[in-house]
Amino acid sequence: MRRFAFNGVPCSDRALRIGVCGPVGTGKSSIIALLCRELSAPLELAVVTNDIYTDEDARMLRAAGVLDPDRIRAVETGACPHTAIRDDISANLIAVEELEGDYTGLDVVLIESGGDNLTATFSPALVDVQIFVLDIAGGGDVARKGGPGIERADLLVVNKTDLAPYVGVDRDQMVADAEAARSGRPVIALSRLDTASVAELTGWVRHQLEHHRSGELVPQDPGPMAPHSHAHDDRVHSH
Amino acid sequence: MQPLTGSSELLLMLLADARLPTAGHTQSAGLEPAVRDGLTDVPGYFRTRLTSVTRVEAATAVVALHHLRQDRPLSPVEAAWAARTPSSAMRRTSRAQGKALLRLVHRIWPDAAATATVSDLAAPGRALVLAGIAASTGLSPASLARIVAYDDVQTVASAALKLLPLDPADVACWVHDVLPLAEALAADVAGLTEPSSIPAAGAPQLEAWAEAHAHTTRRLFSA
């Protein structure tokens, strides 16, 4: 089913909008810098950041020199990072549309949420697909704790896997926990030092872009509530 | 969708509700730079705005509503507003808010002629977009001015709770206590019809704070 924007233009004609969220310090900005570094030659990219209190993330990305600084825009969220990606997406949508207006032919706009808690997810009206980011150093038990992003974001990244030996976390166990929590949805164990994992991430982005361009991509809402199954039947209820 | 008739009270509630998705949570109505510069008297800040910049906004909205109802062009109203809003940061903020509100208006009232007229301006400020809503839905000039005043007060109040160590109940009391001043403002401007009658109440300190805030790299709120 082909989706259309309010103005009648097919969504598949505009850039793919990818949301990146997850707790503070898990590496959202680094992943965006990594994607820009790897993909800004073959693809036309732009970034919207949602810093909590500074424009640090936007400045860090600009300083990284991986993208034209004007393609990186910061949106303030009034200390409400969750609101800005979920219940009032106006400021972010306007920033995305202004980038799309200023740079015709954009392939991907990356939207970085301000670091928030485990319940933060993007509205499907703001992004087409979303990545939830955890990191090894945050503790091996976080993936088991679950939550909408961990369980049902389109992609879960377990970041900084190279730190596992230094923080006493069993990397393979954490990834296995994440996979178990996600019922087959993809998990990438990422380290910027591990080129195979980087290729896996860029491959996922390219696949999503193809899916988007074909008009088949329909945003899936991770939702605020966990679907649960009742003991008496086999159906899964989503409330 | 049919314009709402018979219950302008409900329409006012809709427009005044902070849950309306128009990026209101990104705004502090200039309070953040004021607090950074040492301001702590929030009720005094309400009053200062209601007698200066908010008065200009409310009067602009009312005069724009009159022009829409009389089928007169809006550009002289916008020019009068811009001339009375010397801070480019404040004009930019009002236009950004107008854009977010207009985006929602197109979804709620897609066929409204008045909002189409407002959309014809290159970058209408918030007061002009609100005037378009009022013209499309039959709101009175006084109701329109009340919305402008009330929204400004509540924007300051909710930002104050993030910026200062306050009891939320105290802040609600302050909002309640300033309502007569908001009502008086609405009564004062409700009868205005001409751009030249929009008050020119300068507020240099507010303007300086707005300009400083636009250039800082550490802020919670857009403005």
Automatic annotation (TrEMBL), chain A:
NCBIfam families: ureG. This is Urease accessory protein UreG. Belongs to the SIMIBI class G3E GTPase family. UreG subfamily. Keywords: Chaperone, Cytoplasm, GTP-binding, Nickel insertion, Nucleotide-binding. It is found in: Cytoplasm. HAMAP family: UreG (MF_01389). Facilitates the functional incorporation of the urease nickel metallocenter. This process requires GTP hydrolysis, probably effectuated by UreG. PANTHER family: UREASE ACCESSORY PROTEIN G (PTHR31715:SF0). SUPFAM superfamilies: P-loop containing nucleoside triphosphate hydrolases. Residues 212-239 are annotated as: Disordered. InterPro entries: CobW/HypB/UreG_nucleotide-bd, P-loop_NTPase, UreG. Homodimer. UreD, UreF and UreG form a complex that acts as a GTP-hydrolysis-dependent molecular chaperone, activating the urease apoprotein by helping to assemble the nickel containing metallocenter of UreC. The UreE protein probably delivers the nickel. GTP binds at G22, P23, V24, G25, T26, G27, K28, S29. It comes from Nocardioides phosphati. Residues 18-188 form the CobW/HypB/UreG nucleotide-binding domain. The lineage of its organism: Bacteria, Bacillati, Actinomycetota, Actinomycetes, Propionibacteriales. Residues 230-239 have a biased composition (Basic and acidic residues).
Automatic annotation (TrEMBL), chain B:
It comes from Nocardioides phosphati. Keywords: Chaperone, Nickel insertion. InterPro entries: UreF (IPR002639), UreF_sf (IPR038277). This is Urease accessory protein UreF.
